[in-house]
Amino acid sequence: MEVNIELLDSPGAVYASKAAPNQSAPAGGDNLGFGDETEEAHSEGDEDKVIEHLAGCDGIIYLFDPTRERREGDSYSYFQRTLLKLSRQVFRDRGSADARLPQHLAVCVTKFDAPEVYRRARVGGYLSYDDSPQMLPRVREDSAGHFFSELCKDSKVGNADLVLGSIQKYFHPDRVRYFASSAVGFYLGDSDRFTENDYWNISKNADGTMQIRGRVWPINIVEPVLWLGRRVNGSAG
Question: Percent helix, strand, coil in the chain (nearest 5)?
Answer without folding.
Answer: 40, 15, 45
